[in-house]
Specification:
Blueprint lengths: L1 H19 L11 H7 L12 H11 L6 H10 L4 H15 L23 H6 L2 H12 L32 E8 L3 E6 L5 E4 L3 E4 L5 H12 L16 E7 L4 E8 L5 E6 L4 H7 L7 E10 L2 E6 L1 H7 L12 E7 L2 E7 L5 E5 L5 H7 L11 E7 L4 E7 L13 E4 L9 E5 L6 E4 L6 H7 L5 H5 L5 E4 L4
């Protein structure tokens, strides 16, 4: 039901954005889909829209036949940043749940006749499947990584030209010459892979690194600027440098168990994480441990998001190339951990990973955890069973898909405590070892007071040690 709300709101807001930017004023209803496909939304700011504007355009958009996936794909294709799309979802969710205080809730702008099944809030409350999915998403470790607007993985463009960067059609090459001669060339690599230098001719650069391209360009430019490489053995008096200007855009396809599958236009400096963020990341059935990068019809590398989440390293988060395919496989093993661990949740394990790895994913035990033994509820082909895994077996016992791991807390008792009260100098709790003579105990609490001897009071010692 929430997806239907999102669909209606998105279409209405897109129509508003078009009219706001002067690109879709007075758009007829039959052209709504066309306007969505042709707008440039790269500079749109969702925060600039008011609640009333959103509500107004939701009403005229309800009759469209587009699906939510088609809407999201079209928005991204037209340049709407992922962060703005997330803001849009949050605005709609906030309005539907009545969290925003300005104006009326979305349910209040529709009558029962317009929406026979009730207003949106009532329907949401009656949707147990959506509630279950939302709870599952919160539990899955890493699921929120690709939905937060504070983390985008956008590549930095304010960096020196990477030496291993491979040039391709659409890249702008800047050639600076100084010394005895001064000249600057700015050439974009053609679809055929060439740049054209006046009075010199085409130079093929497609697929070359910056270093190799520099050598090739220098060899050709010596025909015009002999001072780059003098033949008489004298020192050069002309110098050259090659750098990147405008960086090309490449197409990357994300398929499999991904929230928004499709083909995305990204910078040639983008990495796998960047494409995953644009596509929304894995679904609730997707794997965070086996994300394949397919290049030239073979699996080029496999990305494990846990390397970043647990260890803070971006292993195999390599730079993308044009026509790369990212495939997210379904998860294999998923285990829920509750109790005295620092981070409860649902974790994905690979074959060969033990309970020791699972506890590491959960950031280890808390200070109150009973570490000697953990409880495991496991599914069998016919029923369930419970197993105990001792601490010494953590590294050689392996969880299976569907396991429910419980880490209990320690008992609220002491193994070596004695409580002393009465006519003594120092009442309180003391350490005791089994077989400790009475005189050692008296020495510990400094003996009985004189008052206790005069009144013949009996020393009260409460031994509460647990054997």
């Amino acid at each position: 039901m929430r997806s239907a709300i999102f669909l209606s709101a998105v279409i209405g807001i897109v129509l508003f954005i078009g009219s706001f930017s002067g690109m879709a004023q007075n758009v007829p209803q039959q052209l709504e889909q066309q306007s969505l496909a042709t707008m440039d939304l790269s500079n749109i700011k969702i925060d600039q829209l008011t609640d009333e504007q959103i509500r107004s355009y939701i009403q005229r958009a309800e009759q469209t036949g587009l699906t939510q996936m088609e809407i999201e794909a079209a928005l991204i294709a037209r340049g709407l940043p992922q962060s703005e799309l997330l803001k849009l979802k949050q605005r709609i969710n906030a309005l539907t749940t009545g969290k925003r205080e300005t104006g009326r809730g979305i349910g209040e702008v529709r009558t029962r006749q317009e929406k026979p099944q009730g207003d949106f809030i009532d329907v949401l409350k009656e949707d147990p499947d959506e509630k279950r999915i939302a709870e599952l998403q919160q539990k899955i470790f890493g699921f929120s990584l690709f939905s937060t607007e504070r983390l985008t993985f956008d590549p930095s463009l304010n960096i020196p030209t990477p030496k291993n960067y491979q040039l391709g059609p659409g890249d702008e090459v800047i050639i600076d010459i100084w010394g005895a001669s001064e000249q600057t060339y700015q050439q974009e690599i053609s679809p055929d892979g060439y740049i054209l230098i006046p009075n010199l001719g085409p130079i093929y650069l497609n697929g070359l690194s910056i270093d190799r391209a520099t050598d090739r360009i220098k060899t050709r430019l010596t025909k015009i600027y002999s001072g780059l490489d003098p033949k008489n053995g004298s020192n050069p008096n002309t110098f050259m440098q090659v750098s990147l200007g405008q960086i090309r855009t490449i197409k990357v396809t994300v398929v499999g168990e991904v929230r928004t599958p499709g083909t995305y236009d990204v910078s040639a400096l983008a990495s796998v994480f960047n494409a995953l963020y644009l596509s929304g990341g894995p679904t609730i059935n997707g794997s965070f441990r086996q994300i394949e990068l397919i290049r030239n019809n073979r699996v080029f590398t496999v990305l494990d998001v846990y390397d970043f989440l647990v260890e803070g390293v971006q292993k195999n988060n390599i730079q993308l190339e044009d026509q790369d395919i990212i495939r997210i496989r379904p998860f294999i093993n998923r285990i829920e951990v509750v109790g005295e661990v620092k981070r409860e949740g649902i974790y994905e394990t690979l074959d060969g990973e033990s309970f020791e790895d699972l506890i590491r994913f959960a950031r280890g035990f808390t200070e109150n955890a009973y570490k000697a033994l953990i409880k495991v509820k496991r599914n069998t082909p016919k029923e369930r069973r419970i197993e105990d895994v001792a601490m010494g077996e953590f590294d050689r016992t392996f969880p299976t898909n569907g396991d429910f791991v419980i880490v209990n807390s320690i008992l609220d008792r002491y193994e070596n405590r004695v409580q002393i009260a009465g006519a003594v100098f120092r009442e309180g709790e003391y350490t005791i070892r089994i077989g400790d003579p009475d005189r050692n105990i008296q020495k510990t609490f400094s003996g009985m007071t004189a008052q206790s001897e005069e009144k013949d009071e009996t020393l009260k010692v409460d031994f509460t040690e647990q054997l």
